[in-house]
Amino acid sequence: MAQPSGDSFRLAIEALVGGEPVGSVSTQDTDPCAGRFSHGVVISDEHQRRGYASDALLLLLRFMFGERRYHKCEARILAYNAASLALHDKLGFVSEGRLRDHEFFAGRHHDLVIMGMTAPEFSERHGLGEL
Q: pTM of the entire structure?
């Protein structure tokens, strides 16, 4: 696995029981000056819908907002990915826009939904102390 570069990194997600790898969570596009970063999360098919993604994202956001002092997290989600859109909505991300026909694969174009959450929004919803 590649070494972290500043605040950009990728971490494995393991099952609590048995330590089996179930996916990964990452940060990218980190901009400490602007206080902004984006993230990615991937859970293997057989482990989806068990809370791994939400638990991993909450830990990641708590670290990036609380310890690294970033102000905003952005997520770019393909519009057909209803599960990811619902996860981010449940965590408190706000839809900030849609890039129409932005990505091309599998023979067609797909919309990309941009969602975001600020540190104060995270703190209000999930608790982080005064930010």
A: 0.89
